Inverse folding.
């Protein structure tokens, strides 16, 4: 079975600074990889997803993620954060050979933006 | 675009009570899901439905029932509410069950057991 580890429960960065949120997964094959974001009192929204091709995938609002197969990682990055990026970010993995019901989420990383 | 509407936003019930959460989607998606979100634990799948009148158990189905009488709606019932079940319940839908499809989520319903 697959698993996802987000090692940082909370990350604090200053507005305008760069950001990296870490995600490592465990799965024997190549899965679909996702980053979802949950703004306060809202449901989750897709930021980006990856299956194949260029290992750096672009998402909404200036976010990108890099798939590094050798490290089983899919870290999320942003060059310059804004206060509106304050939210909880979830990394998720889904085996390509199974249904979307097998989507496994990490525990989430809360991003706090300092003025 | 579409929207997923969950009702109620807050559901307060007594221990042992049967409580029902409702979810409506206007995406015309085939597959719908119910997840439970506990603080610091990520999301765990309770039930999902591939199409109207279909029900499939997720990893956390014990203590819950579900109903999909129409394509656009998916209900979740807590059969006997317990205080350790206080959490946020998230409904989601996807165009179908194929892996890699984007899930679209509602805003959540918070269950409070007194």
């Amino acid at each position: 079975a697959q698993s996802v580890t987000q090692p940082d429960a909370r990350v604090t960065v200053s507005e305008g600074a760069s950001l990296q949120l870490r995600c490592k997964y465990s799965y024997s094959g190549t899965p679909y990889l996702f980053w979802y974001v949950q703004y306060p009192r809202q449901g989750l929204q897709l930021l980006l997803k990856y299956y194949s091709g260029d290992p750096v995938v672009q998402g909404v609002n200036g976010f990108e993620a890099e798939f590094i197969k050798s490290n089983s990682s899919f870290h999320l990055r942003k060059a310059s954060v804004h206060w509106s990026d304050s939210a909880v970010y979830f990394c998720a993995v889904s085996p390509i050979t199974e249904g979307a019901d097998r989507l496994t989420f990490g525990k989430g990383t809360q991003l706090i933006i300092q003025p | 675009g579409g929207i997923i509407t969950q009702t109620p936003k807050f559901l307060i019930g007594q221990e042992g009570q049967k409580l029902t959460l409702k979810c409506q989607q206007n995406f015309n998606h085939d597959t719908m899901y119910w997840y439970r979100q506990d603080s610091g634990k990520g999301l765990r799948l309770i039930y999902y439905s591939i199409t109207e009148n279909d029900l499939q158990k997720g990893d956390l189905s014990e203590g819950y029932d579900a109903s999909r009488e129409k394509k656009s709606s998916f209900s979740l019932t807590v059969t006997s509410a317990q205080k350790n079940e206080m959490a946020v319940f998230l409904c989601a839908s996807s165009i179908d069950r194929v892996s890699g499809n984007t899930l679209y989520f509602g805003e959540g319903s918070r269950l409070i057991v007194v």
